[in-house]
């Protein structure tokens, strides 16, 4: 690349299909433990049609209900005849070539009669659904995980009832013997069981054949399916804990996939930019290189915000209103229009009647976006002096002038908003403190009730009945009414630290960043020169300013604030009297 004029419309790329962040931790686990590849040839899928139908006539694939069995045999025969019209030497290859493999599984009953050329009545739809269920349980075809995840809970219950005795009865019987009956029959337990059934149906084999990669692949497919359905991905990883208990996973496997399923973690600079779908490939590569240059001097949150300002608020907006743009040298009218659009944003608000309405509101971080774009242009111009071949083609005048980044008024408005939020929330502070203290006392009492109960026994607390896990030494309990499994020791620990944080912030008034940096070394003592009284103090290192504050300690004394810009022999600090009642 020698000049920006060489960039043509052919350098534009389509935005990625998925804009989610995978996370480096999840990526590392997926690379270390790859899933089993999707196969299209194994013994049962290569059997002749007559042999498959003969197998369906024998238990455990034959249901006890005679009418149901006849309907399933009729549906399986029609499906196999239909699959024979597609290319392939195995039934799985023909399934992959059919339109059924590319459509969601919840469309099967509605579309299958038209594909196969039969009547569209309810009895025929049930026959085809039952026939496909029998073929899956017999391991003749293996639908992909997205196909299975789109099925309803009723379909999954039928699949579980048919697949377990036909494919892995010993493994599931061993698993059921290890899990207490309350958890096994609860909704969380049923979801975990359905997860294992779906993995076995999609990958083949038994419970002992499920790998860590299969579990990670399932969680990724679950997240994608829930995102497509505009639902929240719950990330139920109890099935993975069951596999660990069975001992089928290697010793080096992760102890849990909970945090990998529910958090994204830090990602690469390429992923930060690609989530916004930048179409111009050279500009996309430039943004990635720029973020990599800034990366050593910025924390991850700042990099995340910078990527959003440049790739979405700036260049993404330009590509939306000026398709085909490929140069940073903006015409005056283009930059002026972008600055005007940057002042506002569209906000979706739910009305009292339940309808969502789009409202144009003022953007609060306009100055931050302008400063990021101005720094982007000025940095490239400065770096072009040292590396002309790399940055020189992109060195152009900045569209952001000095008047665009005047932040005095914005700082005043931000301070006014902060003060207003403080005045609004201050009356609720005693309520929050009482609630945190009440939650801690309740969690501690519930944990003590569990410790007084023998393993496997039941105890009542606050109107709920719990059953303690049968394993000695564990603090897990199951709510009999809801089936929810909870670690009461972990719940008590979280309640304690929540109470501690509320009390710490309430009595000291420090920023949350300063609270996170506090340790036992921050506790110092001061003796009053008047009466010799010992006052405990909390010493806090400065984070954003060199402001030093002190509290005299007497009731009703006014807060004194001192600011000194002269060089100090040591870092300034703040000392506050410690009044926590532990």
Descriptive notes:
With about 575 residues, the chain is an alpha+beta fold. About 50% of the residues lie in helices and about 10% in strands. It has 24 helices and 11 strands. It has helices spanning about 25-30, 50-55, 65-85, 90-95, 110-115, 120-135, 145-150, 155-165, 170-180, 180-185, 185-205, 210-230, 240-245, 260, 270-275, 280-295, 300-320, 330-340, 365-385, 390, 410-425, 430-450, 490-510, 510-515; strands at about 345-350, 355-360, 460, 465-470, 475-480, 485, 525, 535-540, 550, 560, 575. The strands form 4 sheets. Strands 3-4-5-6 form a 4-stranded antiparallel β-sheet. A 3-stranded antiparallel β-sheet has the order 7-8-11. Strand 1 (about 345-350) and strand 2 (about 355-360) form a beta hairpin. The chain starts with about 25 loop residues before the first helix and ends in a 5-residue tail after the last strand. Residues about 1-20, about 230-235 and about 545-580 have low confidence and may be disordered.
